[in-house]
Structures are given as structure tokens and as C-alpha cells.
Design goal:
elongated, alpha+beta, three-stranded antiparallel beta sheet
């Protein structure tokens, strides 16, 4: 409740902040039917691309969100976990699942599973040999 009250007070102050009341950020010129916006967010860069028709109905919405940008580093982190904690083993432990979860959340803590306690993230991990033969498979379901 204290945090909620604090947030409300900050919002009130921001709504009355003279630096935010100006029109210096308002664009002028001809109406555009297409625009791209880029903003840096806590999890990474967000790209928004929109098109509207003459009735201002959205006809195209293309979003590139942080999860997309973080996909490659997350994959590399999981591969590193496998190299560090799986070498020479042929089965997947609960500890390995936890290390994989931590690697993913380091890049994208806001995935839908991030509201769950550590060790509770729904996860499917398959371990294959160099020929692609399945050696082990662990599934951790979402717990209630």
C-alpha cells in the first residue's frame, strides 16, 4: 500500500510538472499515415512501426520487442550453461534446469513466467547427442 500511495503521489506531481506541460514535443506538419518509433526500455530497445488509413484505423502494426532482441544472447547463455554444467553427463538435473532459467531471466525477466518463483518456470529441455539422438528430456510444468 505504501508503494501504491507513493506511485499515486509521483503521478500527481508529474501531471502538474511544468516541464511536461509544454508543446515542444508536439509535432506539426502534414498528417502522416505511417510512423516508426524507437524507445529504450529497461529490457532493451523497442521498435514500433504503424500505418493507419484515412479513418485512423491501424492497417499495419509491426513491433520488435526486447525479447526478439534478446533471443540470441539468451541462446548463447543457455549454451554456456550447458557447456559449464552438463559436460560429460547424459541426464538433465533439476539444478541444470534452474541454471537455464537463471540464464534466460538475466536477459528477459519479464517473460510471462517471470512472475513465478525461481525453480517454477515452465520449461522443456532436451539433451541430444551429436547425431541428434535424444538422450534425456525434462519437462517442468507450471506449478499452481
Amino acid at each position: 500500500m505504501i508503494e501504491l500511495l507513493h506511485a499515486i503521489e509521483v503521478i500527481r506531481d508529474l501531471l502538474n510538472d511544468p516541464d511536461l506541460q509544454g508543446n515542444d514535443l508536439v509535432t506539426s506538419g502534414p498528417r502522416r499515415e505511417e510512423a516508426v518509433g524507437v524507445v529504450e526500455a529497461p529490457r532493451g530497445t523497442l521498435f514500433h512501426h504503424f500505418r493507419v488509413n484515412e479513418r485512423d484505423e491501424v492497417t499495419l502494426c509491426n513491433l520488435i520487442v526486447s525479447t526478439t532482441n534478446n533471443n540470441e544472447p539468451m541462446n548463447r547463455a543457455v549454451a554456456r550453461v550447458a557447456r559449464d554444467f552438463l559436460s560429460g553427463k547424459s541426464e538433465i538435473s533439476e539444478g541444470l534446469l534452474n541454471h537455464i532459467e537463471v540464464a534466460i531471466r538475466a536477459y528477459d525477466p519479464c517473460l510471462s513466467c517471470a512472475t513465478h518463483a525461481l525453480g517454477q518456470m515452465p520449461l522443456v529441455v532436451e539433451l541430444c547427442d551429436v547425431d541428434g539422438n535424444l538422450l534425456d528430456r525434462r519437462v517442468r510444468e507450471r506449478s499452481s
